[in-house]
Amino acid sequence: MNAILEIRGLRKQFGGVTALSGVDLSIDEGEILGVVGPNGSGKTTLFNVVTGVYKPTAGAVTWHGRDITGLVAHEVSGAGIAHTFQQAMAFPGLPVFENVQIACEHARKSARPYPWTTPDALLDFVGLSELAHERAGILPFGSLRLLGIALALATRPSLILLDEPAAGLNDRETQTLVGLVKQFPQHGISVCVIDHDMKLMQMLCRRLVVLDFGSKIADGLIHDVLNDPKVLEVYLGGVL
Amino acid sequence: MKASHTMKNRASPFASLLPALLVIGVLVLVPALGPSNRTLSLAISAGINIVALYGLAVLFGQTGILSMGHAALVGVGAYVAAILARDAGIGFWVALPLGSLLAAVAAAIVGVPSLRVSGHHFVIMTFAFGQLLAIVLTNGGDFTGAATGLDLQLPVTWFGRDAGELVPYYFIVVAFVAISAIASWAIINSSYGRTLRAIRENEKLAASLGINVGRHKIGAFVVSGLFAGVSGVLLAYFFRHISPNQFSSFPSIYLALMVMIGGARLLLGPIAGGILVSFLPEMLNLDPVESRILYGVCLIAVILLLPNGLIAGLLQGLQAIVKAAFGSRAETPAAGANNASGARR
Question: B261 to chain A nearest CA, in Å?
């Protein structure tokens, strides 16, 4: 396996609170990796440290062999790592088309061919062409999530971090989302997804990582991890 | 469907410039109506403000940053013009680009430390820098003329003739209003303008798409300084005497008020705000104290009732009337107008 992103001993402290206490994690080329954990286990902090929202207290992030620890958000995007947000996924006051147009205009230069390089192609891919001239703020939640995906794809990433992409979506919308995300690896885009939803994880991932209180407690094939007694203990409270 | 996207996105920008150009066309005809000198003077000072307002429209309307010290940047332009004329004999047309450039440099100097903070904190920083400039000018000794200020004696000429009289100077100011409107329109409809709007709408998302948010905020402040500098040179050559209190906190608040009343996101906003705030006290025959009270009331009313300004409010009102009068049949054109205003922003 060829790891593109390697996280070593990542720590993040907010005052006296330790959100991440030395996490090791690697993401392989072309995989869809799932990260789960109870609320407050450090999933979103992990994303925020990797994408430059926070600076880590200690540890290193290596991207294609290059140390990217502590880069700020726009530099991380320029390096080819995109991410989507749980909330505030779009520019609400601007038309949908302009949202994607802005993202395309700031796309990094990449030698790799992408199937979607124009706003029209991206909107077509996520199925929002019909809504191109509506203000993003009036879109229903499901469409807003898809717009968030289109914006992340527009930056021409080779890794996308998805932060609870299915939160607030109904079953049909979740199916659409899964259909899209499963196509990313064919186009050279690896995926790391964090969510609570085990059904979603089973649909998307082969490998699963479990975080608890800022530490990694399991990492392996999804079937093995879900049968690990340690995981059942923290994740399901030991009831099963 | 795809073809229609491209069509629409290419056709709409010019449609948004047209109303502003029409209004400016009407303004050109004003001297032919034989207005009084008082009216013409007010119109000139309104026009000088409008030039600065177009810069504020880029800063506040597009980028979402409010400056409460903008008159200080106008002051930089004005003092550059007066000092260049006094010490180097450099006239109006050379002072214009130099004043504009130096005001932009001043904006960069203020912007780099100030834009590390955002929201209300930035507003307070700009207010403080505005006050600071007034203090520096007041204590600048002979170089800035201290509290008395500076006189400007060089004539304004164009095409070899004197243009310092009211009517020719009016035309010069209207020309700069037109240039400012077109420049502002070009920014709004460029990739740069879209980048600024992205920052206004969602800074975190903008950064995640690869936009250097801090650099672009400072850039927008510098661009607004270019407009302010031009406005300052025009002001210095109109009043012929400048002093520090012309560029302190009250004028700054007036500028912010004008852009809010007119509406910062529409191209007609600065023109409407500049004219209204300049002429309303005159038309209602108010003394300066009463007019300040009126401005305060207006500002509160606009913020509460018409958060996007008077012009946007008028358009919405018109749409509502059309809808009420023609019922469901009018829904299609009303939706079209919505789209157009979306594209304009």
Answer: 20
Tens-place pLDDT, residues A136-155: 999 999 999 999 999 999 99
Dihedral over Cα of A80, A81, A84, A85: its sign:
negative
Cα separation of A4 and A160, whole Å? 12
Nearest-CA residue of chain A relative to B339? A133
Among A79-83, B181-185, B253-257, B286-290, which stretch is predicted with the lowest mean pLDDT?
A: B286-290
Domains with residue ranges and CATH for chain B: 18-308 (1.10.3470)
Q: Do B1 and A97 touch (CB under 8 A)?
A: no
Pull the structure tokens for residue B237.
């050559």
- Which two three-digit tokens encode residue B270? 């600065």
Question: According to the per-residue pLDDT averaged within each range, which of B10-19, B132-141, B162-171, B194-203 is highest?
Answer: B194-203
Our CA-based measurement puts residue B198 at a distance from the nearest CA of chain A, in whole angstroms, of: 6
Question: Would you state the structure tokens that stand for residue B241, as one six-digit string?
Answer: 């005497």
Question: For residues A148-178, b (16+ Cβ closer than 10 Å) or e, as one string?
Answer: bbbbbbbbbbbbbbbbbbbeebeeebbebbe
The structure tokens listed for A117 are 């390089």
**Angle ∠(B253,B256,B259) on CA atoms, nearest 5:** 150
Domain ranges of chain A: 3-235
Architecture of the structural domain at A3-235 = 3-Layer(aba) Sandwich (3.40)
Can you tell me the distance from the alpha carbon of B217 to that of B200, in angstroms, rounded to the nearest whole number?
A: 10
The residue that leads in pLDDT, B74 or B289, is: B74
Of the candidate ranges A113-127, A183-197, B29-43, B285-299, the one whose mean pLDDT is the lowest: B285-299
* Candidates B7, B197, B209, partner chain A, best to mutate (most A CBs within 10 A): B209
Between CA B149 and CA A167 the distance in angstroms is 63
Identity of the residue in A73, A90, A120 whose CB atom sits nearest the CB atom of B207: A73
Collect all residues of chain B within an 8 Å Cβ-Cβ radius of residue A154: 209
Chain A CB contacts of B212 below 8 Å? 74
Is residue B196 within 8 Å of residue B189, measured between CB atoms? Answer: no
Look at residue A196 in the predicted model and tell me its pLDDT.
82
**Residue in the structure block whose two tokens are 């214009």:** B96
How many angstroms separate the CA of residue B277 from the nearest CA in chain A? 28
Q: Categorize the per-residue pLDDT at B77 as very low, low, confident or very high, splitting at 50, 70 and 90.
A: very high
pTM, full prediction:
0.87
Strands B161-162 and B157-158: antiparallel
CB B107 within 8 A of CB B52: no
Nearest CB to A106 within list B6, B211, B345:
B211
Higher pLDDT, B313 or B226: B226
Q: Considering CB atoms only, which of B6, B202, B213 is closest to A91?
A: B202
- The chain A residues in contact with chain B (CB within 8 A) are 51-53, 72-74, 77-78, 82-83, 85, 88-95, 97-98, 101-103, 105-108, 119-120, 124, 129-130, 132-133, 135, 151-152, 154-155
